[in-house]
Specification:
This protein has about 350 residues and is α/β, with parallel strands linked by helices. The protein has 16 helices and six strands. It is elongated.
C-alpha cells in the first residue's frame, strides 16, 4: 500500500477486520459510506479515489535497486505507480482523438529485439536514435522525449536504494517510474537504463543489467559523440572537462569515464586511476560542481489543464486527478515559474 500500512494495520485504523479489507480489495464486498470515509483518511486519498472507472494491475517490474530495498517498500512503490497510472489513463480517456495504438506499443514492435552482448546493446541504442531521428546530438530533455514517444513516465517516493523500474500495462504499454529525489544525472541514466529494459531481450546468458547499463551510456552519449569530444585515445581526462561534458550530454562524470573505457579511448588502468580519485575525494556519491536539474514529466499535467480548459472536468476533479488540492497545485506552480498567478490558468 502506498502509505506503507499492512493489511492488519489498515484494518485496525478503519475499524474493520483484515478479512473485510481483503474482500474490498478483491471486489467481493462494498464498504459502507462510513468505512469509505475512514479508508480515505487512513490512506490519505480523496473519497473519489474509490469510484475511479479505471483500474490497472501492473505486471512484475524489472527493479533497478540495491538489494537493501525491503519487500514492503516494493509494494509501496507498486501501489503509488498504479494509483498515478489510473489517474493518467482516466484523463487520457477524456480525449477521443487519442490514437488507438500507443506509439510506445509500436516502439516495442519495431525496435525490441534480442541482444547477446554489450556491443549489440551499443548497436541497439544507435538503432533507436536513428529511428527517432536524433543523430548523435545531446538529448536536451530525456523525459520529454520519452513522453513524446508514448512511454509514460511517473515520479514516486522511495528510499535512496531505489532508482527506477519498468512496468508493462495490460495493453502492453511500457511505463517507467523513477525516484523523485534523485540528482538529474542519476535520473537520466536511470531512465535510459529502463528504456534499455524496454527494447532489449537478453539472450545467450548475458546479464540484463549490464546490457541495460551499456545501452543507457550509448543512448545518452553515442560512440560517435564520445570520440568527437574526447579524440581517439587519451591518457587521462580532466575533472573540469568531465564536468562540462556532464552538463552538455546529461551523463554523469563517472559514466563518461566508463564510456571512454568501453570505447577504448581510455585504458583500463587510466580509468581505474580516475575512479580511485573519485573514491578518495568522496565524489563517487556526489560529483563536484553544480548538479544537473531534475527533469519532471509534464504530459499528464498538460492533459489535465487541457481538460479543465475545455470544461471536460471541474476543478475538484482536476485536484483528484492531480492527487493534491488545487490551491496547493497553484502554489507549487507559482514557486517554480516566477510567481505565475493561479488565475493565469483560468
Amino acid at each position: 500500500m502506498a502509505v506503507g500500512l499492512s493489511l492488519r494495520a489498515l484494518a485496525k485504523q478503519v475499524g474493520v477486520s483484515a478479512q473485510a479489507i481483503s474482500k474490498y480489495e478483491r471486489g467481493l464486498d462494498i464498504p459502507s459510506s462510513g468505512v469509505l470515509l475512514r479508508l480515505s483518511i487512513a490512506l490519505d486519498v480523496k473519497v473519489e479515489y474509490f469510484f475511479r472507472m479505471r483500474r490497472v494491475s501492473l505486471r512484475t517490474p524489472a527493479w533497478r535497486k540495491r538489494s537493501s530495498l525491503p519487500s514492503k517498500m516494493e509494494k509501496s512503490i507498486l501501489s503509488q505507480a498504479e494509483d498515478w497510472l489510473e489517474r493518467y489513463l482516466e484523463v487520457e480517456d477524456l480525449f477521443p482523438d487519442r490514437p488507438d495504438v500507443s506509439p510506445a506499443c509500436e516502439l516495442l514492435k519495431n525496435v525490441k529485439g534480442p541482444v547477446g552482448s554489450l556491443d549489440e546493446a551499443e548497436k541497439k541504442a544507435d538503432e533507436l536514435r536513428t529511428l527517432w531521428d536524433i543523430g548523435s546530438d545531446p538529448i536536451e530533455n530525456l523525459t520529454e522525449l520519452l513522453e513524446e514517444k508514448g512511454v509514460k513516465v511517473g515520479l514516486v517516493e522511495g528510499p535512496d536504494s531505489f532508482d527506477a523500474c519498468t512496468f508493462v500495462t495490460e495493453e502492453d504499454e511500457p511505463v517507467i517510474v523513477i525516484n523523485r529525489s534523485m540528482y538529474g544525472d542519476r535520473q537520466r541514466f536511470s531512465l535510459a537504463h529502463e528504456l534499455g529494459h524496454i527494447v532489449i531481450e537478453p539472450v545467450n546468458g548475458v546479464d540484463p543489467e549490464k546490457v541495460a547499463h551499456r545501452f543507457a551510456g550509448a543512448f545518452l552519449a553515442p560512440a560517435e559523440a564520445v570520440r568527437r569530444e574526447l579524440g581517439g585515445h587519451r591518457r587521462t581526462l580532466s575533472i573540469y572537462e568531465l564536468h562540462l561534458l556532464k552538463h552538455k550530454y546529461g551523463l554523469s562524470m563517472q559514466a563518461w569515464i566508463y564510456r571512454a573505457k568501453d570505447l577504448g579511448v581510455l585504458s583500463e588502468s587510466s580509468a581505474r586511476n580516475l575512479f580511485r580519485q573519485f573514491r578518495l575525494k568522496g565524489w563517487y556519491r556526489k560529483e563536484p560542481g553544480d548538479s544537473l536539474p531534475v527533469e519532471e514529466p509534464k504530459r499528464f499535467e498538460r492533459l489535465i489543464m487541457r481538460a479543465l480548459s475545455e470544461e471536460l472536468i471541474s476543478e475538484s476533479r482536476a485536484a483528484e486527478l492531480l492527487g493534491k488540492p488545487f490551491a496547493e497545485f497553484w502554489r507549487e506552480v507559482a514557486e517554480k515559474h516566477d510567481g505565475l498567478p493561479a488565475d493565469f490558468g483560468s
